[in-house]
Each structure stands twice: as structure tokens, then as C-alpha cells.
Amino acid sequence: MIRLLILVMAGAIALTLAYFFFKLVPMAKKMLAVGGGLAAAIAAVALQGNYPFYMPFLAILGVALLATLVYMKLEDKRQLEQQRYAEERRSRLAAASSPKNAPGNRFGISPVETGKGEQ
């Protein structure tokens, strides 16, 4: 019971620190990191009493790996979205600067050619 109380206190401290000190990091990433750490700690506390000493370490490692995979999936999705936006921006710039849309002869009047004697 004491271990559970210590775990809850450590979780509350970690959530508070993550919320107040890491303002630039998006909330989903902060909560994923803190939640992954808490889930690893909960798994270790649950396995600490009945199993050999190495089982809580394996549980921490497994849960941390799972949280890392989820974090990297979110980061990969964000990078793909940024690449898509960059390509859309490039295509809009290329379409805007194409010679077909260049501001040349706006009124459609072609210049009149004069002969040699009229100069």
C-alpha cells in the first residue's frame, strides 16, 4: 500500500512538472511521456511482490518500449503532415510563377508593326 501511495505521489509530481515546465512541448506528447513512465512504474510495482527481481525491470522496459513506439508514430505523422504542407506550398508557388499567369499584356492588344518608311 505504501508503494502505491509513493507511486501516486511521484505521478502527481511528474504531471505537475511536465505541465508547468515544458510549455513548448505539445500536450499530447507530454502526457504520453509521463503516462508511459507511470504505466511502467505501475507494472513494476504490480510485479515486485510475487516475481523474481528481474521481472519488474523487464516490465519497465516493455512498457517504455511501447510508449516510445506510440511517441514515434505521433512524430512520424506530424512530419508527414509538414512534408505535405511544404509540397502544397511549392506547387502553389510554381503555379503562381508559371509564364501562363505572368502579368504581360493584360488587355490582349498586340503591338502594331510599322513598315520601314513610317519610322
Describe, in plain words, how this protein is organized in 3D.
By secondary structure, the protein is mainly α. It has one domain. The protein has helices at 2-21, 27-48, 54-96. Helix 1 (2-21) packs antiparallel against helix 2 and helix 2 runs antiparallel to helix 3 (54-96). The longest helix has 43 residues, at 54-96. It is rod-shaped. Keywords: Membrane, Transmembrane, Transmembrane helix. Residues 90-119 are annotated as: Disordered. The chain crosses the membrane at residues 6-24, 31-47, 53-74.
Largest sheet: none
The overall strand count is 0
Q: Structural class given helices, strands, pairing?
A: mainly alpha
How many distinct folded domains? 1
Look at the structure and give the mean pLDDT: 77
- The low-confidence runs, each spanning 5 or more residues with pLDDT under 50, are none
Radius of gyration: 31 Å
Strand fraction equals under 5%
Shape: rod-shaped
Order of helices and strands: HHH
